[in-house]
Amino acid sequence: MFKQGSLSRGERLDYIDAVHCMRQKLPILPIEEYPGVRHRMDDFAATHINYTLNIHISGIFFAWHRQFVWLWEKALREECGYNGYQPYWNWALSASDLPASPLFDGSETSLSGDGDPPDNLEPIIPLLPSNVSIPNGRGGGCVTNGPFANMTLNLPDLDAAPGDVFPDNAFAYTPRCLTRNLNSFMSQSFTSQKDVDRLLSSPNITTLQRNIDVSVWPALSKAGIMGPHAAAHMQLGRAMDDFWTAPQEPTFMLHHAMVDRIWTLWQEQDLKNRQYALNGTSTIMNAPTTPEVDLNTELAWGPLSVTKRLRELMSTKAYDFCYVYGD
User: Does the keyword Metal-binding apply (predicted)?
Assistant: First the structure.
């Protein structure tokens, strides 16, 4: 896998074409149960919704998403003739100026740019449940530039849904535009190279899990929020920040390829002690109602994949996996 910025023009266009192809393929999930699922990319978003209360802030976060991104790349290749690799979004390279990044500059080889500014744009964003507010971005409205201009999201905005209760309308057909609100203050503050270095210097898996989801800012650290994983979601705006439906955003898979890259590089620093390091349960916030995960814990992705044991997901070079991360 390679960072998006190192791909040639042709390679970037090939990836964009493959994403469009996935949006033109019929879904495999039944519309009777999933009325908002209208194409193959929606299959992935709905699957993410189904497992949201298990795969975040838990002992299976890294492994579940590793398989999820791999399944996406596999589908691009097998169903859309994609011959490249899944690129990753190196957060640090775009941290200083998101709108100027090749990923978000709105050019034909980008993933489209900022959204149109709405009339009622708030100047600051409160970071709840802390007492911190940060400057807002300049967008927030529909994306009208680049390869994903005027793109329609079919599944609902679930950002306001409780983080511990499955929403009743999770799969309702709710067509709306892709929105973006690029926020360089957030990228500079939470996903810079020093934030990447902090992740890679984590001494154990428990610390790595905390560091990826919790900021070093004292007020945010106390509140347990805004590590690089969440911050990268939030700095792109509402569609990407939706806890449940973020895979509808074309950037999602590149973001989680970067999360997987971080985990992989961290593991490779000390394979003897880190390759199979686990911590936590299989429920959000590591709820004590579920047991601690181990290498025999089974993970599922609905009809996207057969069930896997955690031991099958701990290395990028074992079982079904055979990939490395390039520069």
Answer: yes
User: Residue 53: left if φ>0, alpha if ψ -120 to 50, beta else—which one?
Assistant: alpha
Cα–Cα distance for residue pair 78/242, rounded to 1 Å: 29
Cβ-based burial of 291 (10 A; exposed 0-12, middle 13-18, buried ≥19): exposed
Q: What is the mean pLDDT of residues 67-91?
A: 98
**Spacing of C-alpha 195 from chain mean position:** 17
Q: Write phi, then psi, for 124 (nearest 5 degrees).
A: -135, 160
Secondary element (H or E) of residue 309: strand 308-309
DSSP strand pairing (132-135 vs 152-153):
unpaired
Between helix 205-213 and helix 252-268 the angle, nearest 10°, is 150
Position 1 scores a pLDDT of 42
Helix and strand element counts for the chain (H, E): 12, 6
d(CA 3, CA 126): 32
Q: How confident is the model at residue 232 (pLDDT cuts 50, 70, 90)?
A: very high
Q: Take residue 22 and report the two structure tokens written for it.
A: 């996935």
> What value, to the nearest 5°, has the Cα angle with vertex 44 and ends 167 and 232?
80
10 Å Cβ neighbour count for 48? 26
Q: Which domains does the chain have, with CATH numbers?
A: 4-313 (1.10.1280.10)
The 3-state DSSP class for residue 281 equals strand
Least confident range of 52-61, 96-105, 108-117, 161-170: 161-170
Name the CA radius of gyration of the chain, rounded: 19
* Residue 213 DSSP symbol: H
Per-residue model confidence as pLDDT tens digits over 129-138: 999 999 999 9
